[in-house]
Amino acid sequence: MDKTVQFIKESYAELRKVIWPSREDVISSVKVVIVSTVIIASVLGVVDVLLLLGVQAIF
Prior knowledge:
By secondary structure, the protein is mainly alpha-helical. The chain has helices at residues 2-17, 23-58.
């Protein structure tokens, strides 16, 4: 039981040392992720269509 209490105390102490990102930083990061996801999805969609057309042309 002592180890559990010690673990919780140490975890709490470590969480107090964390520098949490600001709301603006989080929003900025989310925008980057969304734009990157849309770009990659678009590129993969174009590649998929091109491969489909190529396979259809062969067969």
